[in-house]
Amino acid sequence: MKVRLLHADRDVDLVSDLPGNAEALEQDLGIDVVLDAMARGDAFLRERAERELLLGLDDPDAIGYRQDVLSDFLTSPKLAHQLYDLAIQGVETRREARLIWLPNESPDSQISKSLRMLVLLVDVLRRLRAIADAEPEHVESVGLTRLFATLRSELEDAYLREVERHLQELEFKQGLLLTAELGSGNRGTNYVLRRLRRGILDRLTPDLPSGSSFVVSKRDEYGMRALGELQARGLAVVANALAQSTDHVLSFFTVLRAELAFYVGCLNLEDELRARGAPVCIAEAHRAATRSLVAEDLYDAALALHLERPIVGSDLDANEKRLLVVTGPNEGGKSTFLRGIGLAQLMLQAGMFVPARSCRASVVSGVFTHFKREEDATMASGKLDEELQRMAEIVHSIRPAGLLLCNESFASTNEAEGSEIAQQVVSALVEEGVCVVYVTHMYDLAASLRRQELATALFLRAERRSDGTRTFRIVRGDPEPTSYGTDSFRRIFGTSPRGIVRAVE
Amino acid sequence: MSEAQPQRLALDEEIREEISFGSILSPIGTPAEIAEQPAFFRDLNLDQIVAAVSRRKPDYALEPYFNAPLESSDEIEYRQEVFRDLERDEIRAAAGQFAERLWRVRAYLGSSQKQQYKLERERWILDAALQYCQGVAGIREALDEHPPGSRGLRGLRDFAARLLDSTEFEKLRTDAEQVADALGRIRYAVRIRGRRVSVGEPGDEADYTQEVERIFDRFRQGGEPDHLAVPADTGSMDSVEAQIAQLVARRYRQEFALLESFCSSHRSLVDPTLARFEREIQFYLAWREHMAELSACGLPFCHPVVATEPKVTHAEGAYDLALAAKLKADDDNVVLNGFSLSGKERVLVVTGPNQGGKTTFARMFGQLHHLGRLGVPVPASEARLFLADRLFTHFERQEDVGALHGKLDDELIRVKEILEDATAQSIVIVNEVFASTTLADAVLLGGEVLERLIEDDCLAVCVTFVDELASLGEETVSMVAEVETDDPSKRTFRIVRRQADGRAYAFAVAAKYGLSYERIRDYLRR
To answer: In angstroms, rounded to a whole number, what is the distance separating the alpha carbons of residues B388 and B411?
Structure first.
């Protein structure tokens, strides 16, 4: 029995470490706000949401598989909640029966613990199958269809009754019958447990010739231990089968609960966004090789959850682009735009809906953020070092087809130096197939990247109306020099600085 | 007492005389063993190599064989022949299996002496006899099918054949098989209810384990943690097992009578020559195992010609075996080097940058010459090695730094001893000697030592930072640790034969965070 609601071919991953960049992502992209909305106060839902968001998928088909299951649940949220409640009950049986496997537990004890658990678990399985029997409407996804089919075929009544019959027989009220051969040292070997039937039982015991049996004295401590070991040899495999069955059914419920928790979180988030009038869509995920990114009304989901008023999104057409350079006035929505792209990418690759009216995007091999860190200002001299150190860590982890979001990177040194470092880093990364979105106010950097006339580069600006008001939209537009420096120069020298004039031309 | 006490039995004297085979390690009977490590082991890291190889067969204490170099080309070739045979999978497997069976025979006989219950002791003796018979028959059959080329393994085969053809051995074998067969057919049923244990004949009751596993199969997908709690086997019969065995023995009287009579009529098993083989073959197997791991990384080994005449020594594709074993663990590249001394050439003078592989080269040279004398395949793709009477080394010891004056004195004393003991047949390796003195002193003293080594006419390696020593005369050959032509901070660890050039090797400072355009691209392409 397999759940397979998150992956077509494997269980939820509850053990892998989060990627090394997870902490930076959470800090830079405001993921907390999104997770709170998904969790609605439930720590387990939050943890599950966090893991799926940060451990995203990189195969468009795998993403589609999850999106389909999510679509079913968006159509019928009640089904998700019903299944989730039963999964919780299944997991809770363990506490009810106080099951703890002790190290080196004897087969006897494994059997009696397993029997206690399995009786409870079979009951919850029956109720789960009842949901599958009812054949819920609107279920179209491969994931849910397959799960229901499995429940119907694997847990049919006849089978569950047979299981319950054996659960009784396994109490071994009539003792054990073993067969054996002589092994090394003439000690018994190849012990096989035999099924004791009443007829055989009657035949065997009284008919044994006298002197063919012995009784181990209660006071014979070694003898009693030896007898226990012999029984253990006979029962070990059966006990293992039962203990593993118990584990499996429990882990089935554990997996079911963990996988459903993610979808329940998605339903919660959709609820919250809908209440704020923010649109969501199931995006088209493309292969990394195609490098597409087109979106309508793309917005920052974290900011949307914060705002009391409807959020402003941006339209973006960045197909075939590997370098997006975003310039423009402060407070114009550049960082929000950058975070929006990052969060949307993570949500897409988690198989979630995306915060946009429509969206087509290629998967990336990993999302990395390199944001200016205000709080790191403690070590005045170490600021550039700290930035370089973080970038070096990124360079060691990022792979071709990765996505790097830079927010005012290398602004902690003078512009000439910062832009020289940035150019080296950005050119090398883009040439090796990394996608970089770089938000910067460094005109020197933006302009020199612009001069390279790269077909794969796209230049964007935070929109400002001619009257100076900001729309918080990001639109196409080349970098423009800030006029302050030139102004000052002119004011003092009474003439334009030649270097800057040349650069603009 | 009717119980068997195993003891070693010598073959009939008559048979023994016809068989010349005595040892797989030596054509002249017992191989030499030396308990103490030679003085040069530590300098050459041979101590590490021998420890690593011996560790593979810890029960056999192989170190004394590795401490004892052979005296003649004939003895060396005797072992090389065996190694060549062992390169063939069938022969290696057969030899290994035979040794393992002999080990079991010993272990079983040991068990039989330890145990409390007679029924158990007797069965161990029977099983030891079966292992022994299978072992001797097995090695003969394997070596008949895959005839060995070595004198050693041919001797073993003939020895086994003689033994097998003796009437005594034949009787041992048929008796053992008959008893084992009878006992092997016994099946019985045990019923446990409460504290009562009954023994009877088995009926046709179904295997309940299989049935339970079948029913619960749907609930098990594999990958669940294993709870299998089979009690640890103490290796000895307990009182319940003993009572059961007695009840079984009462039901099957005839079979158990056969066992008893077998044990009283076969009181001894293993021939002493074969008993010794069990340990001796481990020398080969351990070395082969060690080699195999390095061979798998693409490192070469070869069988060198080891001779006293003419006075030449030569190797290609050679490397420091101790270092290679370490690097292999880190998946690093091992650099192969070569050397050659012929005609009037006597001394390799090695110069070049620090950390450039000079000491490694010196160790490699020494290791090759000792290993060559052990008859084992040496770490090189090709070699002809001088069979030296003795090997002397003098390496600078880091821990000695401190008392400079005392250190120079100590060094001179040690060098003097070497010069006194070395003969025209010796090999001397001096590494960074006089490094703590002034350059003028180092030139003077180093030159002096070299001249004396040349006078003694021994073969030598001299690692030094003094370039002047590299061109003393036609007896010296200059070798230099190379660096990359376009980046002098990168060592190649290749030691090449050319004039010392006295070049300065500055370390290029690496970009602090590795964030240059080229480095980033390299990272992404890795």
So the answer is: 24
Burial B421-450 (b: 16+ CB within 10 A, else e): ebeeebbbbbbbbbbbbeeeebbebbeebb
Strands A213-215 and B196-200: antiparallel
Q: How far is CA A360 from CA A281, A318, A402, B267, B323, in A?
A: 10, 10, 17, 86, 55
Measured between its terminal Cα atoms, the distance across chain B in Å is 75
> pLDDT per position in chain B (526 positions), as tens?
344 444 444 444 444 444 578 899 999 888 999 999 999 999 999 999 999 999 999 999 999 999 999 999 999 999 999 999 999 999 999 999 999 999 999 999 988 888 889 999 999 999 999 999 999 999 999 999 999 999 999 999 999 999 999 999 999 999 999 999 999 999 999 989 889 998 888 888 889 999 888 888 888 766 778 888 888 887 889 999 999 999 999 889 999 999 999 998 887 788 889 999 999 999 999 999 999 999 988 899 999 999 998 899 999 999 999 999 888 766 567 889 999 999 999 999 998 766 678 889 999 999 999 999 999 999 999 999 999 999 999 987 644 444 444 556 777 778 888 988 999 999 999 987 766 555 566 777 778 888 888 988 999 999 887 777 887 888 999 998 877 765 555 667 888 887 776 543 322 322 457 787 778 888 888 7
Rounded to whole angstroms, how far apart are CA atoms B479 and B347? Answer: 10
Q: Smallest Cβ distance to B198: which of A1, A205, A231?
A: A205
Strands A470-476 and B187-193: unpaired
Look up residue B217 and give its DSSP letter.
G
Residue keyed to tokens 């070694």: A222
Q: Are A478 and A450 in contact (CB under 8 A)?
A: yes
- Chain A stretch 220-249, residues whose beta carbon is closer than 8 A to a beta carbon of chain B: 220, 222-227, 229-234, 236-249
Q: Which of these, A436, A370, A352, A441, lies nearest to A407 by C-alpha position?
A: A370
For the ranges A108-112, A314-318, A461-465, B108-112, the lowest mean pLDDT is seen at A461-465
For an interface test with B, which of A169, A182, A217, A396 has the most B Cβ atoms less than 10 Å from its Cβ?
A182
pTM of the model: 0.59
- Specify the pairing of strand A367-371 against strand A403-407: parallel
Judging contacts by C-beta atoms under 8 Å, the chain B residues touching residue A159 are 218
Instruction: List the structure tokens of A229.
Output: 């070991």
3 state SS of B157 = helix
CB contact under 8 A, B237 and A186: yes
Provide the edge-to-edge strand list for the sheet that holds A293-298. A284-286, A358-362, A293-298, A314-317
Which residues, at least 6 apart from B207, have a Cβ–Cβ distance to it below 8 Å? A192, A193, A194, A195
| Long-range pairs, A15-23, Cβ under 8 A, ≥24 | A16/A55, A18/A50, A18/A51, A18/A54, A18/A55, A19/A54, A19/A55, A19/A366, A19/A397, A20/A393, A20/A397, A21/A366, A21/A367, A21/A368, A21/A369, A21/A394, A21/A397, A22/A54
Q: Flag whether the ipTM exceeds 0.90.
A: no
Tokens at residue B55, please?
């560790």
Helix axes B167-184, B118-145, angle to 10 degrees: 120
Q: What 8-state DSSP symbol labels residue B384?
A: E
Please state, in angstroms and rounded to a whole number, the distance separating the CA atoms of residues B323 and B332.
10
Nearest CA in chain A to B259: A186
Contact predicate A409/A372, CB 8 Å: yes
For residue A114 the two structure tokens come to 């397993």
Q: Count contacts between A and B (CB, < 8 Å).
A: 253
What single string gives the DSSP state of each residue in A192-259? EEE---HHHHHHHHHHSPTTSEEE--TT-HHHHHHHHHHHHHHHHHHHHHHHHHHHHHHHHHHHHHHH
The residue written with tokens 């200002």 in the block is: A377
